[in-house]
């Protein structure tokens, strides 16, 4: 007789690379099985809402294709021939290969490679403890945030802004450079509340009619990479019409007179020619924010996807400063709360063993690194051994052909610790099955909000999978560094240490509370005591080369990209990969609603809802070229070419192509994904990959 078990509710946090970091309530059906996942109603930011992807999280945890046993390659790389191997033998093999690489070329020949498949601080960042103890090559994390963070800090001096929950108190919400409906649904929770309760219009600024644009009261569709021009015209109008807050600028701006003089020529007509917006659209938006003191600018990660993104972010951030919006509840700007946490990860990351003389390798340039580019290798030895956790570079990294070619090297040993057989795992020598966030303890903090959250182990993992923490610990034993600080501690011990050395109460308190809200008060969040710069003033005039920012490369790497071409005042920086005669289209590759980078692309529910890889083209372009809906087309540039089905859609602008992803490489006709077309050249001033900034040619097949 089957005994009925009453489900219970567990409390955790979403582990994924999303600014929302939702507090979750999870239905636990059995010791090893979850059911429904909901947003925690008691959390003031999550407010009971989560995205459709995470609502279906049980589909991922209990997926029939989930990796369950260690596998060793027996055929050629990428052929898919494997044999099962025990965990002890697998970890012995990793240690053997690492030691052999070290003996031949030195410790820098080993490159632990990771990113944000989980945002948990123990399971994500613990790999650095092994890196530092063994003096392996460093990783400069450049693939996501650099341009946006740098541009924000250029103005405020600090990566923090207005409490994002204040959107609900706004009289106008501007969502700029983020498709929040698809990528951070909680932004919409608070924005829609302002519309319902206060009649606040929602203004969305983006490059195509995505789901967020479709919910806008005012939708401004720019040409890609022209945000800075719009921002300059808005400020020009503010000075011209007297809606700029001159008293505020005199108290809080570094050089408002110089800014005003600089903007004299940045007229709406000038911006219209660059952005593709009409003069009337620009004037109307400026008038709205000029008369609406409680205007909230929610600035997104789209700024990190263009080569001029740092300048564009700084220009957009300057708009609420010129208009004095920061002074008012529901007004000002927000991007990320990275400066709030003050986390000391000394034991988690083994920072006491960090050696600044060890080279750093650029995460975004993994293709160049693995194919032996001397500059990318910083003059050091080749990388001949890797362990990959929490990322899928064969799919998500730019210049995909080089990445895949590098991973196929026979002299390169690659171990991939993963939950599914990703594109990267298929090219590995050894695949290790990984636990999900429901199966271990970790701690999280919200980039897009202000909560520290504990994510406890809710269910038992399958017997044959292991956590990231386990793998790091076991390799340390085999590599002779298990006596170094931080090793030999459980996840809970590391979390407790992190909290206490960072000035918080310990884990017991966090676990009892479920989350801690560290949002500062109104005056600090709105910079009413001055901005976090040396003179306490907002920087309109920026010295990019000397700027201190969270994503600044280590001294050994220096500045990255054409820093000398960055303007000192807000402007349109013509550094984008613009269309030309040979490449008449701009290609952008924004997120799909049902995927999160390459995560969830393996689940049937997400793939069914997305349909298939397509290329959106404006009807005018299709008519001019004689193309039909559904037709196969080839697009390409100097980096490569791929085939896609055409989707004729007025959501795009003429001259702009949109592909929503990331789809697995195998979903494409030739087995190569969209990042074949994406460049890995570093963007100024501190690097970053410009995923939405590609020029391409197109031809019918």
UniProtKB/TrEMBL annotation:
Residues 7-65 form the 4Fe-4S Mo/W bis-MGD-type domain. Keywords: Iron, Iron-sulfur, Metal-binding, Molybdenum, Oxidoreductase. Pfam families: Molybdopterin, Molydop_binding. GO terms for molecular function: iron-sulfur cluster binding; metal ion binding; molybdopterin cofactor binding; oxidoreductase activity. Its cofactor is Mo-bis(molybdopterin guanine dinucleotide). Signal peptide: none annotated. InterPro entries: Asp_de-COase-like_dom_sf, MoPterin_dinucl-bd_dom, Mopterin_OxRdtase, Mopterin_OxRdtase_4Fe-4S_dom, Mopterin_OxRdtase_prok_CS, Prok_Mopterin_Oxidored, YoaE_C. Belongs to the prokaryotic molybdopterin-containing oxidoreductase family. This is Dehydrogenase. It comes from Aureimonas ureilytica.
